[in-house]
User: Fold this.
Amino acid sequence: MKIVIGSDHGALSLKDEVKRILAEQFKNVEVHDVGTFDLKSVDYPDIAEKVCGEVLSGAAERGILLCGTGIGMSIAANKFKGIRCALCSDVYSAWMSREHNDSNVLALGGRVLGFGLAAEIVRTWMTTKFSGDERHKRRIAKITALENK
Ligand code: RB5
Assistant:
């Protein structure tokens, strides 16, 4: 599986930690890091655009976005048709965002989460499958319909 990851300066260290976790625990996962790569201030929508672009083109199956709170990244990501970005600060939300919402992008807050909790959130999000239940498919189809209104 290919994962694309990106952060702004507010979550650089958590991005590095998430990459370390992915490399250590998900041997079959290839990670493409689109930056940022230093603490110089950058605008999170630019990074969100790169990550969402790779998910929508199929270059990556799913994406992970990180900023100080995760809020800016999630707002920006959800502007892209076909992106279902879930901002998660707990494991239950990460689980449900996959099982019920089929989230294809995970947003995390580098100034919100400790490394331990972030690791559990990422592990859960990576390993949980969409349930495929009819009711959830129907609701996601309605979200897609909203994108075209
Ligand atoms: C950058 O200072 C900060 O605004 C950004 O990382 C993020 O938290 C925005 O939602």
